[in-house]
Design brief:
There is one protein chain. With 360 residues, the chain is α/β, with parallel strands linked by helices. The protein contains twelve helices and 14 strands. The strands form three sheets. It has a seven-stranded mixed β-sheet with strand order 2-1-3-4-5-11-14, covered by helices on one side. Helix 1 crosses helix 2. The longest helix is centred in the C-terminal third of the chain and has 18 residues.
């Protein structure tokens, strides 16, 4: 016989109402009580009747997560982190992939599938600042990423400029002066590439190093193949360089492969650092230094804010918040050699992570 709310309440030693509050992801439940109820749910294998619950409460217990793609490890690992955070609130995650298509991203905001959810975590890559009006939806929405700022919804984002500057400064501190960048986007003003390039330029300027345009390579997609192609082109150009900053780890991994094919030693001849700190980075040979942009914190903040917005129901919502998460420089063999055992340099600002501006 299937377990019931009454069975869960009895095992957890709480009221049926408390179990209902946990199942429906109400935010005002003590963490210890939520954990006890969730343990009872897991032990009994209780499965809530989603349809009946939706009819009674107007909630489905499902949230949406919209991502550009899942083939990039960063987004796959972000999805994993969001699912883990949602489970803490008794929520299921429905994932939609847009392929970084602007039309698809705009369409998904009014998709009937999203109407099956209680709220949405949305990471666009094709949309831009000119599309901000499309975010004025009638359901809880939390925006991720760096494509749109100052919109009408809560926004959780990373410190791209500061983190990229810290990555570049770590190369400069290691004595590198000819630092190439892989992954710039031609003409981009707002977006991860533009912000990270700005951080790179800030670090060079502060160190009194002239910016050489020949060291900035441009790509479209941020995949390994693009990083390899850009690195091969730079090597063949004859432009001297002693370090590489890949604007994401996939680009850096592609570059790392080409450097090894060309007989260049990493880090002795060329130091390499990436951005995203995907799990694979710790297992390459040499292991890849990277920026941990706060992916786990992004997931936790986004889910927490969304749950709070869902709990507000039809009441008057508070003003949108913009949250900037912590970052850290993770130094591995590709910048310091195999003898290094000092992997992290924290780069977050002290104090609250809430900000009225992007901080960049």
């Amino acid at each position: 016989m299937a377990a019931t709310l009454h069975d869960v309440a009895k095992l957890a030693g709480v009221s049926i109402k408390t179990v209902s509050n946990v199942v429906n992801a109400y935010p005002h439940v003590r963490p210890a009580t939520r954990e006890r109820v969730q343990a009872a749910i897991d032990e009994l294998g209780y499965q809530p009747n989603i349809s009946a619950r939706s009819l009674r409460s107007g909630r489905s217990g499902v949230i949406g997560l919209v991502l550009p793609e899942l083939s990039l490890s960063y987004f796959a690992e972000l999805a994993d982190a969001v699912i883990a955070e949602a489970e803490k609130h008794g929520l299921v995650v429905l994932i939609e992939k847009t392929g970084a298509s602007r039309d698809h991203e705009i369409a998904v905001l009014s998709s009937p599938r999203m109407r099956l959810t209680d709220g949405l975590i949305f990471s666009p890559l094709g949309m831009g600042q000119e599309d901000v009006a499309h975010l004025a939806v009638d359901y809880p929405l939390v925006l991720l990423g760096e494509r749109i700022f100052g919109g009408p919804v809560d926004h959780v984002t990373m410190r791209n400029v500061e983190a990229a500057r810290a990555a570049t400064e770590s190369l400069i501190a290691a004595g590198r002066r000819r630092i190439a960048v892989i992954g710039a986007h031609e003409g981009e003003v707002v977006g991860s590439a533009a912000l990270r390039l700005a951080g790179y330029e800030e670090a060079l300027t502060a160190a009194g190093i002239a910016l050489d345009p020949e060291l900035v390579t441009f790509t479209t997609l941020w995949h390994r193949a693009n990083g390899a192609a850009s690195m091969r082109e730079l090597v063949q150009s004859g432009t001297p360089f002693d370090a590489v900053f890949g604007l994401n780890d996939a680009l850096a991994l592609g570059a790392l492969r080409v450097l090894q094919e060309e007989g260049l030693r990493v880090p002795e001849d060329v130091a390499v650092i990436g951005f995203d700190d995907i799990e694979e980075s710790a297992f390459t040979v040499p292991s890849l230094s990277s920026i941990d942009p706060g992916r786990t914190q992004i997931a936790a903040e986004a889910v927490e804010i969304l749950v709070r917005r869902i709990g507000e129901g039809g009441g008057r919502p508070s003003e949108p918040r913009e949250v900037l998460v912590d970052f850290a420089v993770v130094e591995r063999e590709s910048t310091r050699g195999p003898e290094s055992r000092a992997p992290r340099v924290e780069g977050a600002r002290p104090g609250s992570q809430d900000s009225a501006t992007t901080g960049v």
